[in-house]
Design a protein that fits this description.
The complex is a heterodimer of chains A (114) and B (113).
Chain A: E1 5-7, E2 10-13, E3 19-24, E4 31-37, E5 43-50, E6 53-56, E7 65-68, E8 75-79, E9 88-95, E10 104-105, E11 109-113
Parallel strand pairs in A: 2-11
Antiparallel strand pairs in A: 1-3, 3-8, 4-5, 4-9, 5-6, 7-8, 9-10, 9-11
Chain B: E1 5-7, E2 10-14, E3 19-24, E4 29-37, E5 43-50, E6 55-58, E7 61-66, E8 71-76, E9 85-93, E10 102-103, E11 107-112
Parallel strand pairs in B: 2-11
Antiparallel strand pairs in B: 1-3, 3-8, 4-5, 4-9, 6-7, 7-8, 9-10, 9-11
The chains are: A mainly beta (114), B mainly beta (113).
């Protein structure tokens, strides 16, 4: 009965490289959300996806960031040409549907940019 | 500024005491939720209160919601060392995607023996 699985737990990239963060939702959950957390701050919504569809990306930076949730496989958050300011913890959450069910969170990927 | 702001930012109490955290928000909400985050871990859902509810209990947790003041409080009774964590309130908007949560800045709770 695995929860939300994120990998890697820690990711180190040099400026200009690409970062790929993966999230496998809980079994039976078709809704995935990505959040970003800076040190000593709360989580900031980035994007909400259902299978093969982006529903709400209002929190996603317009450039360099993209997200997908393919029919098969995990959801991917991709950051191209990373900069120091991208250093943060990125959390994925999932839920089964839109009725008042809480979101279940993974343990996050801590991204460090050198 | 934050949609949700917790008060206090940090709280240190002794085991057995009660801990109260407050959250204020700005816009109309569908529901308000409280989450706990242990250091280096993801968030764990604690309790959800709908906009038409005023109070809710779950074990040692008691949550109140005052929509006229746009505020909520989380009370943890008889605290334990294991309650040491950061606590966040999160609001879901009334209009639009109900699942798009907006988190506050959190209260860091330290419970000492």
């Amino acid at each position: 009965n695995a929860g939300v699985m994120q990998n890697p737990r820690h990711l180190v990239r040099r400026r200009g490289q690409e970062a790929r963060l993966r999230c496998s939702p809980m079994k039976g959950h078709s809704h995935v959300y990505w959040y970003r957390q800076l040190p000593e701050e709360g989580l900031k919504f980035m994007v909400y996806l259902q299978k093969e569809n982006i529903i709400d990306e209002s929190g996603m930076p317009k450039e360099r960031f993209s997200a997908e949730f393919p029919k098969e496989g995990p959801s991917i958050l991709r950051i191209q040409q990373v900069v120091r300011g991208d250093s943060a913890a990125y959390f994925c959450a999932s839920s089964p549907d839109l009725t008042l069910k809480p979101q279940h969170f993974g343990d996050g990927t801590r991204l460090s940019i050198l | 500024s934050q949609q949700g702001e917790e008060d206090p930012q940090a709280l240190s109490i002794q085991e057995g005491e009660n801990a109260t955290m407050n959250c204020s928000y700005k816009t109309s909400i569908n529901n308000l939720q409280w989450y706990r985050q242990n250091s280096g871990r993801g968030l764990v859902h604690l309790i959800l209160i709908r906009s038409n509810e005023r109070e809710k209990h779950s074990g040692r947790l008691r949550v109140t919601l005052d929509t006229s003041k746009k505020s909520s409080s989380l009370l943890i009774t008889a605290s334990r060392a294991a309650d040491t964590a950061s606590y966040f309130c999160a609001t879901a908007p009334r209009v639009g995607t109900a699942s798009k949560l907006t988190f506050g800045t959190g209260t860091r709770l330290q419970v000492t023996l």
